[in-house]
Amino acid sequence: MKKGDLVEGIVREVKFPNKGIVETEEGAVVVKNAITGQRIQARINKKRKGKAEGALLSVLERSPLERETPCPAFGTCGGCTYLCLPYEEQLKIKEAQVRELLTEAMPQDTPMDWFQGILGSPSIYGYRNKMEFSFGDEYKDGPLALGMHKRGSFYDLVNAEPCVIVDEDYRKILHAVRTYWSENGASFYHRLRHEGYLRHLLVRKAVHTGEILIDLVTTSQEEYDLSEFANMLLSLHMDGKIVGILHTVNDAVADVIKDDGTEILYGQDYFTESLLGLSFKVTPFSFFQTNSRGAEVLYDTARTFLTDAGMKKGVVYDLYCGTGTISQLMAPVSEKVIGVEIVEEAVVAARENALRNDIHNCEFIAGDVLKVLDEIKEKPDLIILDPPRDGVHPKALPKILGYGVEQILYISCKPTSLARDIPAFLEAGYKPVRGISVDQFPWTANVETIILFQKQH
What we know:
Rossmann fold; seven-stranded mixed sheet
């Protein structure tokens, strides 16, 4: 095989996150976004060290596992991976992927009876409490689009109005916003020329309270009276209630949402959500689990792991704490919880959340975990890690393990990062004693995993 060759074959399996292993007459090829059992055609786009990677061109024969999808944009939209499968089949794939990664990270022939499989999401449709949509066009010089990037494309978009992982209120907002700006003639930000006005639409809706927060993200290159835009949104008939409409300016070149200044057009700059009996204030850019009902399963399971293991009531470090969700859930069974989070906005919200929930034994510190650990005087009796997708900073991990606490609970949203960190735990004398995955992201390739590590003596 060489670059540019066309190959055909059967997808034998899918490795995390979405890498199909395709058996062809010329050998095995890695093809993203393929489904186990499909017969596909691909074009080789990379080959090095004997390993070939290809781009999916077409599905010649569907997998026996496949079904009709509930979203017409599936396959074109880059948001979902497994929407063509029954939900139970998706869970089997994710469990197998995580189990394989964890097994490979452990010494050879290590029993894996501590890994307990996967828990499904209580809601599999309309479960998202946050979505970031982009403005653009579906094809060059086409009409205004508002949605997700097309699969494999940096520039082209697909309108996300049929999206099934959000509820009907999101779809109404998307349609209204796209129609409004199409009629008012505003330009979208062109990612190549760095010109234009409309960049992103951030929508957050609490599943339990129904509160909705909407943030229009634009450049400063054009000016509009946005009061009419806000009034249009407020006139929509929805199940939830809009509590805030914001306008954020972002003049950064990179295609990410960056806050260069936010104006409140209506209401407030946060929404509230409840989890496991606690109330949380969530601001536009602070981290909060995107599946509220799934988060309750995740955090309740994490808390159960610790209480079942007989955790001592001492000082708990909650590192990468976000808005302090798990910190406050652990507060009743701890002397003190110290949460560390790099996003200052999230730390402010965490402090307010603790007061809102009448919790007074939590302290939240804004800063990089790597640096903050040297400044905390109290030593931990228990450590909880809930890092971003890249995992624990490699320089911070030795410091964390160096405390030598009896138990460390690791909550990971990317199993490859978790698997990468496991050897460091083993070398430091820790052993995984209980683990499970929780499907926080139905139909996508992502999955959360919890592992409780116990210090061996």
